Amino acid sequence: MVQLQVGSCSTKVRGILFDKDGTLLQFISLWGWWAEKVMKDLEMELKKEGGSLPEDPGYILGVHIDADGSIRSHDRQGPLAMGSPTQMISIATYLLYKEGVPWNQAVQRMTALFEEANEQLLEHANIVPVTGVVPFLERCRQHGLRMAVVTADDKGPSEQHLQKMGIRHYFDAVVGDDCVSQGKPYPDMVELACREIGLEPHEIIVIGDSVGDMEMGRAAGSSLQVFIDEANQFDTAPESADVMIRSYEEIEMI
To answer: So which residues are the signal peptide here (predicted)?
Structure first.
């Protein structure tokens, strides 16, 4: 086992589970373009039915929209940060349904809209790793820690994102929201990831950038919940976290 020292917290572990967006990669570097496209296309679909986006529409995805329509930040407690693709499609579907479109047709149109954005994402996104994450992953591998990704995104796209960043080879498993019955904040993803890497929840720590990550790890019995806030958006760690870090350099291995 490896002794980890994170701030005032110390624990012995055999593995680490990482959230993906905001934990391994800078969130807006991947999802900013995607969210802009989804919002523009959603507006067009609503206009076809004589409707329009609601006032201050950023809440639909949980993003902050500038006056020019660009998206440079997000709500860490919003749908894009914590929700599944299916949940976000449902939010958009409801808006179309409100304009009089039958639910089944609204689902089909919104699913196609989201899938188009997904298909174009890797071509347009400039994915930037979180500062220090690659050296940290290398240190983990050198110490023999087993690692997996547990993400609210689906497994297939997540594999592609990790491949594009050049870090997929560090992970023994990738678990997406579509791999389990219940996603974050439920413990299912942690439990499945632990089974796939041959460890028990008490033998791992969870590192993530949302309350959902922390609650998921705690519900599964993870040894430690580490909240990462590279962007300095939080003064203190959420109640569900054991400790907060600004950089991976704050995690010591003994």
So the answer is: none
